[in-house]
Amino acid sequence: VTSGFNQIVNNLAKMHYRWGQNADVVVRMPTGAGVGAGPFHSQSNEAWFFHTPGLKVVYPSTPADAKGLLISAFDDPNPVMFFEHKVLYRSIEGEVPEGYYHVPIGKARVVAEGSDVTVVTYGAPVIWMQELIRSGAFSGEVELIDLRSLMPWDKETVMQSVRKTGKVLVLTEDSLTGSIASEIAAEIGETCFKNLDAPVARLGALDTPIPFAMSLEENFLPKKKLISAVENLLSF
Description:
- By secondary structure, the protein is of the alpha/beta class.
- The chain has helices at residues 2-13, 15-19, 38-41, 46-50, 63-75, 86-91, 124-134, 155-165, 180-191, 214-220, 226-234, and strands spanning 26-31, 56-58, 80-85, 109-112, 117-121, 142-146, 149-151, 168-175, 201-205.
- It has eleven helices and nine strands.
- The strands form two sheets. Strands 4-6-5-8-9 form a five-stranded mixed β-sheet, with helices on both faces. Strands 1-3-2-7 form a four-stranded mixed β-sheet.
- Helix 9 links the parallel strand 8 and strand 9 (201-205).
- The radius of gyration is 18 Å and the shape is globular.
């Protein structure tokens, strides 16, 4: 079933490029851990679709961005995978403008400005980082970037921030190997090498299936390692 779905999405992703025909398809994908749903229903699988040319992938972290990105996805001639984190359904609130508005696909959001280190992420980890920044958990100023759109992703905003701070952590809830975070880290290393004051750091989940037990799931996720990962960069 999964193989057949991937093939359908792959074919749809080429329609506008090949024949100039719209593929007005938006696939909404509940995703993410934090609810003890185990190895199938808690998995992050956005990286499966990131590699498909012609397919756009978005992943909002706020109610306002969810509405604006969904409208942009409806209006896009290419198929869009719209990832929605299950925990965020239940745990966050926010003001949502009335009426019809767009959040541009491919444009990141600077959530918090800082001068010492950049953290690039998306989805639930945006909320994790916001909470830590507000609590004063870090010894330096953290600039937090919410990608919002994973394909295409906003290279300009990310590189501008990295050139300013000289240090960067790319954070994902997904397992680290073969992740979107790894691709972004590679791009930063190639583009901003001369601006870096520390190696590009990555942080993600373990390369294992997700356990059912909540205590084991917490160990699987990278959340508890965030402070040490950022502090290691700040002190480098």
